[in-house]
Design goal:
The longest helix has 21 residues, at about 245-265. Helix 3 runs parallel beside helix 4. It contains eleven helices and eight strands. By secondary structure, the protein is of the alpha/beta class. It binds flavin-adenine dinucleotide (FAD). Flavin-adenine dinucleotide binds next to strand 3, strand 4, helix 5, helix 6 and strand 6.
Length: about 290
């Protein structure tokens, strides 16, 4: 089923993001997590892709398994960096052959240290907007295409206004919905939505929610993607950084409040970065389900 259609039909969307594990044991643990989350009846789940093709086979395998072994609607992330157009087409062809209809079209991060020197394949796609255009030209309307959104602006962008201009290019090229980078202050999201309205962009934008379960890890992630962690939250988490249970308790409480506020303000859905674990997401869901 196409996510664009589900977003039109559903009152609110709930979705979960997974990464493709490196080992068979990790993959079995992921499928256990998926089983544990299935009762929530998510609108869709998604599987990430390692930029440059590092998880190519694993992503394809996990997407195929979810599609064939569960009742869930699945979306495959697809990055274009480091790939030729032919390689991308081959991967997407495999999804089409089995009936997977949803793609999150991404550029992928430029490898660290190669920000200036990185060479894009001459027949590759330089930006996600080019990838969206390429998918539309190659597969018509077969895929429902989503893209990434950055409420605080993408780290490479000089400012939000510039980033919004390029975000609009992705929508003009055929993207039908977007999922945001994690953020911890809803004001960035509301501001982003207002700015989109001003430039005439009207696709569903689903906030990406990262439940904090490990303070050091989240600081690293947030640094990498340019997400601001509010000072009051750092001050709460810092003293208990080495006490996983306390970090998780604070992280869940915070995510519940964040989701409640987003739901009260009419968001189209919530996308949880699960990190392949179910516990925190289930605890959050149980406290917000009446608002969904
Ligand atoms: P783009 O939209 O192409 O933007 C990249 C940068 O280029 C931005 O600064 C933008 O403003 C600028 N730009 C765009 N078009 C132009 C233009 N024409 N001229 C000049 N500048 C331009 N990464 C992975 O490797 N695998 C994943 O599975 C993955 N999943 C993600 C899921 C979500 C929900 C999100 C939010 C991010 C995900 N990422 C993933 C991270 C993403 O790949 C990186 O943030 C990457 O740096 C940018 O990808 P993009 O698709 O947003 O790129």
């Amino acid at each position: 089923m196409k996510i664009s259609q589900l977003l039109r039909d559903n009152k609110r969307s709930i979705s979960f993001e997974f990464f493709p594990p490196k080992t068979p044991e990790g993959e079995e643990a992921l499928f256990k997590t998926i089983k544990e989350l299935e009762f929530i009846n998510p609108t869709f789940v998604s599987v990430t892709y390692g930029a440059g093709g590092t998880t190519r086979e694993r992503t394809i395998r996990v997407v195929k398994r979810i599609h064939t072994e569960t009742s869930l609607t699945v979306m495959a992330h697809q990055t274009c960096i480091g790939h030729t157009r032919n390689e991308i087409k081959e991967i997407l062809q495999q999804y089409r052959n089995i009936g997977v209809q949803n793609i999150l079209a991404l550029r992928g991060d430029i490898p660290q240290g190669q920000e200036e020197s990185f060479v894009f394949p001459p027949d590759g796609c330089r930006y996600a907007s080019e990838l969206v255009e390429f998918i539309r030209n190659s597969f018509g309307d077969y895929f429902s295409i989503g893209v990434a959104a950055y409420p605080e602006g993408h780290p490479e962008s000089p400012d939000l206004e510039t980033d919004l201009k390029f975000f609009k290019k992705k929508v003009d090229a055929g993207a039908e919905f977007a999922i945001t980078q994690m953020f911890f202050d809803n004001r960035y999201f509301y501001n982003f939505m207002e700015e989109l309205q001003k430039i005439g962009v009207d696709i569903p934008v689903i906030p990406g929610i990262m439940p904090i379960t490990n303070f050091k890890q989240i600081r690293k992630f947030a640094d990498m993607c340019g997400a601001t962690i509010p000072r009051f939250l750092i001050e709460k988490l810092q003293p208990v950084a080495d006490k996983p249970e306390e970090v998780e308790k604070i992280g869940i409480e915070f995510a519940v409040r964040q989701c409640e506020d987003l739901l009260k303000n009419g968001v189209k859905g919530l996308h949880f970065y699960t990190l392949n674990k179910s516990k925190a997401t289930i605890k959050i869901y149980q406290q917000i389900k009446d608002l969904i």
